[in-house]
């Protein structure tokens, strides 16, 4: 059996595809798996690291602007699209897969469309509640469409019924134990733990809004708080140091550049604050956490807002749009939730109800069924 995956651009596309591919490799060791991506994005590093064969095509996305540089870029993109379709067709013919799978990103477009034209079984997975342009187009052509959340269904016109599969979550997160994690972090039994972050790079608006909250919390000691400023947030580490933090700690507050033990920190947390990327939300749901979500307005089609609203509409989370984000607004929401244990428990329960903890297995089975 041979399976070809096409994905790239961001970790939100690549990691779920790798999780599924790794699972298939576990249960079918003789299965040949190949990925197609681009040479200049993180798939060129992550896929080979995971031990999978990797081929590249040269493709870029369109810029939504009429500036001279954007027009020039889009003209080049048209030519890249034409060439990448030919390159995709060549790779597919050489590899001769039983099924071709798209996990999003513009690299999926020419690969899946070439596979459709060659009569090879195809499927795609959409991570977000508001589908990207590539998957909107492909949904009309491929044999099977898989969705993280049902909210995305109304934006698509698939030729066959969709499957709600959820999004794969790392095993260590599913196995984490709250009591053990709290003990490992030294969180007292009588205090809540708030966990906040703006992604691996960090988010300046979140760091700005959180700064005074963290200083105040360090003085009051009302609850424990772990905050990540992100790899681009070094200036904030310096600000906290000047404010009396020693090695990132003061009172019940700890400020880090990056959270490298997210399984421990999130499992220990009573309230999570962060962006609304599909992977983060799947982790929040899988672990049954109450959350305050601050969607990034800088992503394509504002899809993080739609992701967040999927939780809000089920009383499974709260949203503060970045345009409304201030220290006061965020602090009031934190205090409101930490003062109402019943509300916290209700939201945790509703978030947990949204989780699909066997997502990896569901997606793999659909792929394998098509391959057979």
Describe the structure.
- This protein has 372 residues and is an alpha/beta fold.
- Helix content is 47%, strand content 15%.
- It contains 15 helices and 14 strands.
- The strands form two sheets. It has a seven-stranded parallel β-sheet with strand order 3-2-1-4-5-6-7, with helices on both faces.
- Helix 2 (43-49) links the parallel strand 2 (32-37) and strand 3 (53-56).
- The longest helix has 28 residues, at 68-95.
- The chain is elongated.
- The N and C termini lie close together (8 Å).
Structure in a nutshell:
This protein is an alpha/beta fold and 372 residues long. It has 15 helices and 14 strands.
Primary descriptors:
15 helices, alpha/beta, 372 residues, seven-stranded mixed sheet, seven-stranded parallel sheet
Indicate the topology:
Layout: E1 2-6, H1 11-27, E2 32-37, H2 43-49, E3 53-56, H3 68-95, E4 99-102, H4 108-117, E5 122-126, H5 133-138, E6 144-147, E7 163-164, H6 171-175, H7 178-185, E8 193-196, H8 204-220, E9 224-228, H9 234-242, E10 249-250, E11 253-256, H10 262-268, E12 271-274, H11 278-287, E13 290-293, H12 303-312, E14 318-319, H13 327-338, H14 341-354, H15 359-371
Parallel strand pairs: 1-2, 1-4, 2-3, 4-5, 5-6, 6-7, 8-9, 8-12, 9-11, 12-13, 13-14
Antiparallel strand pairs: 10-11
Helix pairs in contact: 1-15, 3-4, 7-10, 8-13, 11-14
